[in-house]
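ok so heres the complex, two chains, lmk if somethin looks off
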Amino acid sequence: MSSEIKSLKSEITSQIEAANDLKALDDVRVDALGKKGRITALMKTLGNMDPEERKTKGQELNALKDEIAALIERQESALKRQEMDGRLASETLDVTLAPRPAAMGHIHPISQTVEELTAIFADMGFTVAEGPDIEDDYHNFTALNFPPGHPAREMQDTFFLPDDPEEKGEYAKKLLRTHTSSVQIRHMQANKPPHKIICFGRTYRSDYDMTHTPMFHQMEGLLIDKDIHMGHLKGCLMDFVRAFFEIDTLPVRLRPSFFPFVEPGAEMDIACSRKGGGLRLGGNPDGSVDGWMEILGCGMVHPNVLKNCGIDPDEYQGFAFGMGIERMAMLKYGIPDLRTFYESDVRWLRHYGFDPQDRPNNATGVQKDA
Amino acid sequence: MKFTVSWLKRHLDTQADGQSLCDTLTSIGLEVESFEDKAALYAPFKVAYVESAVQHPDADKLRVCMVKTEKGTLQVVCGAPNARTGMKGIFAPEGTYIPGLDVTLKKTKIRGVESNGMLVSEREMCLSDEHQGIIEVDAQYEIGTPMAEVFGLKDQLIEIGLTPNRVDCSGVRGVARDLAAAGAGTLKPLEAAPVKGTFDSPIKVRIEDSQGCPLFLGRLIKNVKNGPSPQWLQDLLKSVGLRPISALVDITNLMTLEYARPLHVFDADKLSGDIVVRATKAGETFDALNDKSYTVTEGLVGITDSSGLIGLGGIVGGVTTGCGEDTVNVFVEAAYFNPMRIARAGRAMQVESDARYRFERGIDPEFTATGMEIATRLILDLCGTDKTEVSHVVTAGAVTEWTRTISHDPALVKKLGGVDVPADKQVQILEALGFEVKKDGAGFSVQPPSWRGDIEGKPDLVEEIVRIYGFEHIEPVSVRSAGAVTAPAETVTLNRVRRARAAMTVRGLEECVTWSFMPKDRAKAFGSNDNPALALANPISSELDQMRPSILPNLIEAAGRNADRGFGDIGLCEVGPAFRTQKTGGQDMVAAGVRTGAKGAKHWASPEESRAVDVYDAKADALAVLAACGGPADSARVTREAPPYYHPGRSGALTLGKNALAYFGEIHPAVLDEMGVKGPVVGFEVFVEKIPAPRKKDGTAKPLLKLSPFQPLSRDFAFLVDAKVEADTLVRAALSADKALIADARVFDVYTGKGVEPGKKSVALAVIIQPVEKTLNDQEIETLSQKIIDAVAEKAGGVLRG
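and the predicted structre for the whole thing:
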């Protein structure tokens, strides 16, 4: 390398290193590599040289040009980075400030419980049926084997509406359904057996105190086929309560009871313990049970009910069950007071409500953290 | 139904203890609701001697006692005025649960003096309300004698919840019979030998209402001596909370509680003439033994004499002919009343009585005569004198036919009950319950006993057998479907309900569940057509007397309550029914919501977020719900046809054809004023079932995606239009300019004020152009832009702003 090129290289190199902003660096680039730049000027001299000299000199100049270009590029990156660092330093924000709010509401525990129940029973092959809140005497009582004047009707305090002038007798007598069992009647009358349905919804009884509200929710199930017996009733409900409460070994007890629309009738209890104050569901590790808590009523559908729905009780039989949705929610999620379900207090809704983006399904388990 | 274990043992020979009897009762369907073991409750309390009682050094009303207990002498601070040296009382050591105070005793210091336990009062022991001083016991009792022994509190009280079909167990003997059948003991024989009458009763009985009273037995017993019952009978009644009155009355109560056989005793000297059982006439009056006077309605079962109405059969007797301490001659009534008639009469007169409870559920018709004999024997035993004479039984009417035969196939127990019970075991159970069982071909012919009117058919027999055999023997069988379920479990409506709920809550609304009813006046303000058919005939209160025509008022009211508690910037929603008519199909599934106050909390980054809620928030909610339910959120038309409870100028409807799918808007300020809720409140209602079902398609595949190779471009236009022209008109005009190329048009600015003449507004549109066949050149874009300007000018009167 000629001393001329060497000194030029060292001179430009130090100019590059001295350039402390992009403008200065660009000046260096123009001075060295621009159309009238010093290296460009030298390149132009090559044409007048003899071939041997041109070859040597040309290689040297090209190498110098590439080297300088690379140095400028490196310096340019460094300067840009430096400039960015300076800008970022001035852009610092207070990250402890709250982000923009994105309000999210909550699913009411009744809806949550309904969705959980639907998921569990859908998995067993039950489908959902619907019926009206305003019923008539026939569908709410008579068809369900409550004969008129029967004292069992007094078990329920019914809300009545004015009679429907366009209907006759029991069909004219309008009332708010006292249970969702009327939905079973409507379903059985409109469809052919076998039946495997659940239904849920608002139910009404004229009672308002610590443990009763004039409106509440029920969920019922019905399974009618040719060979369904009490073993199936017990198995179905046992599977259900264990899935719902997510306690694999939850001890259950079926005991005789009475409802006019079933025979035999029963109630199901689950094991619980009240030792040490609070309520804990389930038995003890050694298999023993401290106490029992009633959770639902059930039984084999009464032959009169089947007949009322046009089903031959000698051919078909099956079971029905029903439960209070609020009670299930209270037990599962530890909600102490029934009346608070209807108060629409946002503090309560936010505390006991559920994440709308995480809905019950059988893959993730139906139980959610409140 | 309450009874004590010792009462039960009058009819049941058993070695079983109270707890195991309770377990058996529950397992056979006589659910034990409470079991009070007084001996266990009072076990820690024992007699102690007060060796000394001196004034507390720092408290006037307290004494420091040295109490000698079976476990040594302890220092106890006591506040009772009667605590004194030399007395004996009841002592509770530390660690004892005090039932009347609901606390467990701890060692403590009272005003600096250590106290180890307490001397208790009657109230603290739940014995009475007495709390003037501590219990004093007779000196004869040794120190350490259990309190239960001193007070005779050894009994165990059981309360069972009777289902309406088991009136036979509303008498202790019926409970004993069921327990015996379940192997918990042996039923003692019934002592009911007839008492021979010696004369004909001068008082006769005539039944004119044989439907209401098929059978009436009477008997005159002369020269008895009424007075307090003997101690055993008083204790029996007191043990279940009944007040002893006099021997004659106590005997009728005993018959009711022990045999479910209510009786009535008349003072024969107060009766005028014969007894006639007849339907009552409206307006007849009588003074009842429950200290109330009744004016009766027509058609109740009346017990009358020549003076008129003297009692309501099967429900309550009258004062004028009742027995008192001075009764000498007693006329005993044992009758059988029609259950339906008693139920109706009881409801009509609103009388609750032990007699009504049993008669309306149907007592044992065959036991009428037996009951008369047992009662006669009791009267002779408890009130008899040397001169007592017993008449022959006066009989009016006859026992109603109650026998029925049910054929029983033992295989049905397995088929319906799901449990194998050997045929001989089945027979044994039925017979133990009093059923008559005869072999009949391969099966049995079964006659239920007279006291089991609830047994009607084959499944009843299965229940009897399985409940006594034990429900625990039923093997559970799962009913999970073997095959996959092809149909969705949810109905279309419920699927939409779930999606609507998710859409609303994700958008920040809190889901509520509110009453289906509301005050009538409020319903009127919310679109009820004042329908009397939707008014409750027997509302629980006037606040809840009309079926709701809309969910909104409930939510607005709830929002108001939350605001009063300091939560004014909130959103609430609900999915549920609203009612149009009382007919089936007269209720709509509605998803509704309200927002109040500011939209979002004040925030440092954006003052805009603390603006008040407005109609567009409600519109956005409504559209989101519509979209979530699969509705035409993009193509629904927006009209101004919202109901009058919305602000007339700030509300709208989303419609499809003639159907309004949703309403949204500010709630009318007058409605808010009426409800006392501070505005602004915006709300919406989406009618979930009115949304058309999506078109049926083959399979589950989505339409094939066609991607354009050409980039879309956006052009902005600002038009000056008349202030009354709605944005939608401009948007539709722009879209109509070229349906092939224009993909979308959006309003991004609306401006009035400086630079825009009054009565006009400037509306800025962003139009999205999607080239279809080739990229557009400048000339083509220019042409298209002109088409847009022309279309807006023509259809909306818009002029492009320079």
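quick notes: Chain A touches chain B through 91 residues (CB under 8 Å). thats all i got rn
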